[in-house]
């Protein structure tokens, strides 16, 4: 299972590719940041994000793309740019037929550190350990992107089991075979 | 001057094309709504918005795209979808090298009705009158997209004059020729 994690942002969009399955050691295939100049026009910045994400998709051919779910409760000044960059990342993946999963920051933190309220340093330390790196990836956006990919690999089996259980339950609840 | 106005939204994205110059009667070249199913995955909905906007750009070849500026103070439940749809519209335009302008809802209302706090009905009535239509365009998102295009045509000369004045002032304030 190869996952591209995307920590969306207009100034710095973290990207990281992780391969592996739950319960086995994971491998980092790449990590980086797509940057766009803060003084460029918004449309041009979105085009630059698109070109950056496309390059990562071309190079690593991920089977899944995991994007941080953006909440509007966040910092009012940055949330719009984050939502717009995440839209571009989701668009690039969906255009290629790659499934997109959204994970909240606390789901990601809980997945890699055991606590949904872990700080950046703790996430960076666990990403370094889980991927057997020499040092935490810099900047934090890059480490967060890897954490998103790890979170997706670890949560996917549970989500699949949950979906199967729901499907089974729905099939049982509709004995006339409408959904079976 | 031919402008595509976009009232961004995931469920209904209003689009309208207006041609003309400030101080002269305006002509509507097209109006409509790009819709995406609420039960589709977010990535797929963004792809559908992209395809819809691309069709409008192909057909009408606008020189400018005017998009409603999204504020995060709005309804928390819908603002993310609005920001994401607007990102796709801006991306489509910028990718073709078409300048993108953002106008706030109150700028648009003030431009077409004289009041930044006008209601939907008043905006619809003025769009109908200014474009010499038989009836207000439905739904309101379509009328809003036309209002955005009209706003851009009317504001553009003032914005250009302002930019020229700023450029002149900057040039005067830098007599050593650094910016001249």
TrEMBL record, chains A, B:
Q: Which is one GO molecular function term here?
A: DNA binding
Query: Active site located where?
Result: 7, 68, 141
Record's catalysed reaction(s): Endonucleolytic cleavage at a junction such as a reciprocal single-stranded crossover between two homologous DNA duplexes (Holliday junction)
Q: What are the BP-aspect GO terms?
A: DNA recombination; DNA repair
Q: What is its main location?
A: cytoplasm
SUPFAM superfamilies xref list: Ribonuclease H-like (SSF53098)
List the Gene3D superfamilies hit by this protein, alphabetically. Ribonuclease H-like superfamily/Ribonuclease H (3.30.420.10)
Q: How is the cofactor bound?
A: Binds 2 Mg(2+) ion per subunit.
Q: Where does Mg(2+) 2 bind?
A: 68
Q: Which UniProt keywords apply?
A: Cytoplasm, DNA damage, DNA recombination, DNA repair, DNA-binding, Endonuclease, Hydrolase, Magnesium, Metal-binding, Nuclease
| Compartments where found | Cytoplasm
EC number in record: 3.1.21.10
State any GO CC term: Holliday junction resolvase complex
Give the binding site residues for Mg(2+) 1: 7, 141
Cofactor or coenzyme needed: Mg(2+)
Which NCBIfam families does the record match to this protein? PRK00039.2-1 (NF000711), ruvC (TIGR00228)
Q: List the PANTHER family hit by this protein, alphabetically.
A: CROSSOVER JUNCTION ENDODEOXYRIBONUCLEASE RUVC
The record describes its quaternary structure and partners as: Homodimer which binds Holliday junction (HJ) DNA. The HJ becomes 2-fold symmetrical on binding to RuvC with unstacked arms; it has a different conformation from HJ DNA in complex with RuvA. In the full resolvosome a probable DNA-RuvA(4)-RuvB(12)-RuvC(2) complex forms which resolves the HJ.
Entry's family note: Belongs to the RuvC family.
Biological role stated in the UniProt entry: The RuvA-RuvB-RuvC complex processes Holliday junction (HJ) DNA during genetic recombination and DNA repair. Endonuclease that resolves HJ intermediates. Cleaves cruciform DNA by making single-stranded nicks across the HJ at symmetrical positions within the homologous arms, yielding a 5'-phosphate and a 3'-hydroxyl group; requires a central core of homology in the junction. The consensus cleavage sequence is 5'-(A/T)TT(C/G)-3'. Cleavage occurs on the 3'-side of the TT dinucleotide at the point of strand exchange.
Q: What is this protein called?
A: Crossover junction endodeoxyribonuclease RuvC
Question: Which species expresses this protein natively?
Answer: Streptomyces griseorubiginosus
The record's gene field reads ruvC
